[in-house]
Amino acid sequence: MTASAGQSSDERRTRLLTNAAVSLRQFSDVLTPLGDRFAERGFSLFLVGGSVRDAVLGRLGTDLDFTTDARPADVQALLRGWADAVWDTGIEFGTVSASRAGHQIEITTFRADTYDQVTRNPLVEFGDTLEGDLVRRDFTVNAMAVRVGAGGEQEFIDPLDGMADLVRGVLDTPSLPEVSFTDDPLRMLRAVRFVAQLGFTPVPRVVTAITEMADQIQRITVERVAAELDKLILGEHAVEGVVALTDTGLAERVLPEIPGMKLAIDEHHQHKDVYWHSLTVLQQAIDLEESDPDLVLRWAALLHDIGKPATRKHEPDGGVSFHHHEVVGAKMVRKRLKALKYPKAVIEEIATLVFLHLRFHGYDEGKWTDSAVRRYVTDAGDLLPRLHKLVRADCTTRNKRRAQRLQRTYDDLERRIAVLAEQEDLQRVRPDLDGNAIMELLGVPAGPVVGRAWRHLKEVRLDRGPLDRDEAEAALLAWWQEQPDRPGS
After folding, report:
1. What residues does the HD domain cover (predicted)?
2. Which CATH number fits domain 2-168: 3.30.460.10, 3.40.50.720, 3.20.20.60, 3.40.630.30?
3. What letter would DSSP give residue 382?
4. Whole-angstrom distance, CA of residue 119 vs CA of residue 121
5. Distance, CA of 21 to CA of 156 (rounded, Å)
6. What does the pLDDT look like over 463-477, one tens digit per residue?
7. Which pTM does this prediction carry?
8. Does residue 83 contact residue 30 with C-beta atoms inside 8 Å?
9. Contact assessment for residue 152 and residue 31, using Cβ atoms and an 8 Å cutoff
10. CA distances from 325 to 185, 215, 314, 338 (A)
11. How far apart are CA 111 and CA 184, in angstroms?
């Protein structure tokens, strides 16, 4: 790869350009034939945007974004016979998508859009120059390009000096941030997302513009907001991203429960700052992840205490209590994530973890009965491994002896669970009699009575453990004798 004239030659810049060349060499099976096809027809092709940024950072994935002077119909024709699949979902915006050997490819015709400044939808206009296309992008670090020519030739192009900002680890806009964010307010949320993903710092003028324009984020659909929030929470620097989200005022508009955790602490009622405690729990949960980032665990860690402000009570002895904050918090999680149109299953998993995160604190030096341990496991279900991590992450005390005691106590609970799991299938606790056996023994047809009996037997199973057939039938008959709607009662 050759750098365009006027580029800086400092050591880090050279090293990053070398990183990009190495990264792109691994994609030659896609880049070279694509460059050849476009060049043969007299068109220019450029790898652009986040693909170039990630190549420079050595983190390029299989999604490749290109821009070109070819019009969409020409792009479609060039891809036919080469790509495994071609589709035109975004063709009204000048984008043709394709897949090839596991790579996802998007090729967009040069754009010179204008915006109605009411929605974030551009009034699509095709452009004639690469520079005009780059200047309309969100941040300078995403406004770099690599020309992909015939025979694998490549040239790095950086008219807005995005490399300098990348080297410094800062986010700046190609044009005035107020203009950029008015055109597309989602860019404000993308800025804090890049803080979380890349560890970059927005320059002061960007921070000022976001803070002053935070209300504009309400022009964005909740689905797009939720998508950016997920990318933020999954970032390597998620805590820093949440701080930026809060400090700029964006959180107040899209997830107000987070800044709502900033409780005032006075000299007479000392307690942990819930906001910073939650950020610490989030980081500790991240540290406990075993492989890929866990979306459900991270959201549960951040939101586990959002019920505290609504349940805070100053006690006569000068202390502060938050009774039932886990119950209130679970309800708040469901309400907020439903408003953001999260999938029902994801909402329920996060809310369940929030609801259960405090239960362990009733486990005092192993005094729980086997029944209580079974209920803990059963209520957590498939979420149990995440619940283990959340509870351990929730220990943020600076008192080392107390922290060690809490961890030892949870170690003991996990041992108890393991012992019981060897004796019975704790993850799938079911009554010792099925519906058919219940109907036969009680002489009742299928209906609500069978459901009530089944639930009672499950409670007996949780309390007493596995029962043999005679014990289960005796327990069912004893319960049946107490039912007021039993025939002949």
Report:
1. 274-384
2. 3.30.460.10
3. G
4. 5
5. 10
6. 777 777 887 788 878
7. 0.81
8. no
9. yes
10. 34, 30, 14, 19
11. 15
